[in-house]
Amino acid sequence: MRNYIVILSLMMGLNVVPVLHATQDNGAADTKKVVRGTLSAEGVPYDVEIKLFEYPPGFGKMHSHWNSLGMGQDGNLYVGVGDHRLDSHLYRYDPRTEVITDLGSVKEALKGKPHSQDQGKIHVPPYQAKDGAVFFATHFGYTYDSTGHMFKYTEEKGIEDLGAMIEQETYYMMIGDDKREKLYLTTVDKSHFVIRDLKTGKWEDKGVFTHKPPFRGVLDEAGNVYMYSYNGKKIGFKNRMSITRYDVEKGTLDTIGVEKNSLWAGVVTLDKKVAYVQSYMTGHMYSFKFENWPNLKPVDLGLIDPEGRWVYAHNFTATLDNKLLVLAGKQGSHKKKAGAMHGIWGYEPETRKKYMIADITEILSNSMGKDMSRHEVYWSNNDTKDKDGWIYIGVHSGGDVDQNPKTEIRLMAIRVRAK
């Protein structure tokens, strides 16, 4: 084990110099390396504990997570990771031991079934049912000549294939309903909303509901599902934005138009009455009350960065007490690579105060072994946190300013605390 102290330089016009106290060790036998640190910025009432985990030896060519983190009812984190081409694996992280375990390969579970050669991407958060079984589904990785499959993992049988998706489609969103024991999913190309009953194993296809499928959604206290959608006639981001609700009692899909709120990444308050969402390209935040449906009237909360800069991120998490919303991302446009600053931002709903809590570029560079100010990073989670307040975010890097395509991947855990 080695200890070190890094003084981060003043970057991107910040008025504070964070101080990082970090340790690096070899972790448990199943974890190749862990980089740990605590970041504290002058003038900000919070600090951040951070842990960056490499995946176990034998990880191979798996290099990306896409929205594929889910907390299990057993207290473990389940993560889907793919090679973006032919195969994906399911991993389990135990917060108590900090051990990451490879639970198996999708390719092995399929064993050469038709239209199953391209399973290199898991785009949904794994969901653990009451009986301990973990469900997840695949999205095409590279060739687009594939069909998404639903899978089930149990300790007794490992990963089992539960069959292919309708019309050779693939999966883009999945939300679990604990009370009704159902999974709600959306497909990619034709944007169907489908339901799987976990008790009977039966599927129900509710049909097409949008021309741009969502990959996130939130539930209200009644269990109704809210998703962003685009109700224009052509696929694309320039069409009229809308929000679609699936009414669990009526079994209907209803869509309303909205001006700006696209519900890309969202969190819901503990009472499940208010949603906070952010647009992943800029970190622009909105809130709305479920009780106002169908007249949601989202409240514009502005950019999360206190200086009004864009933040590129695919995640949004509420702390356990719901007093702070946390976002990890890259300051600036997603296309900007040279001079990029990666950080942790916070928003207090009660006071509406915004903070740039910590610059984590340096610790990312220490973990990934390269200058991350030169790289794009993809961040993803689903309000994923454990009972001790650790927030889990999947991190993988893109190409750098020299067009080097090599990708690094880490599981990141952060805990934001008041000083």
Structure description:
The structure is a single chain. The chain has 2 helices and 32 strands. It is mostly beta strands and 419 residues long. The protein has a 7-stranded antiparallel beta sheet, with helices on one face. Strands 25, 26, 27, 28 and 29 form a 5-stranded antiparallel beta sheet that branches. Strands 5-6-7-8 form a 4-stranded antiparallel beta sheet. A hairpin with a 6-residue loop joins strand 26 and strand 27 (325-331). The chain is globular and about 55 Å long. The two termini are 28 Å apart. Mean pLDDT is 81; it is low at 1-31, 232-238 and 400-404.
Shape estimate: globular
Oligomer: single chain
User: Describe the biggest sheet?
Assistant: 7 strands, antiparallel
Parts with pLDDT < 50 across at least 5 consecutive residues = 1-31, 232-238, 400-404
Sheet/helix structural class: mainly beta
Instruction: Calculate the mean pLDDT score and round it.
Output: 81
Ends distance: 28 Å
- Name the strands of the widest sheet in spatial order: 1-2-3-4-32-31-30
Helical coverage, percent range = under 10%
Query: How many individual helices?
Result: 2
Number of strands: 32
Our Rg estimate from Cα atoms comes to 20 Å
Roughly what fraction of the amino acids lie in strands?
A: 35-45%
What layout of secondary structure does this protein have?
Blueprint: E1 2-7, E2 19-25, E3 34-40, E4 46-53, E5 69-71, E6 77-82, E7 88-94, E8 99-105, H1 106-110, E9 127-128, E10 134-137, E11 149-154, E12 158-164, E13 171-177, E14 182-187, E15 192-197, E16 203-208, E17 217-219, E18 225-230, E19 241-247, E20 252-257, E21 265-268, E22 274-279, E23 284-289, E24 299-303, E25 311-312, E26 317-318, E27 325-331, E28 341-347, E29 354-359, H2 361-368, E30 375-380, E31 391-400, E32 409-418
Antiparallel strand pairs: 1-2, 2-3, 3-4, 4-32, 5-6, 6-7, 7-8, 9-10, 10-11, 11-12, 13-14, 14-15, 15-16, 17-18, 18-19, 19-20, 21-22, 22-23, 23-24, 25-27, 26-27, 27-28, 28-29, 30-31, 31-32
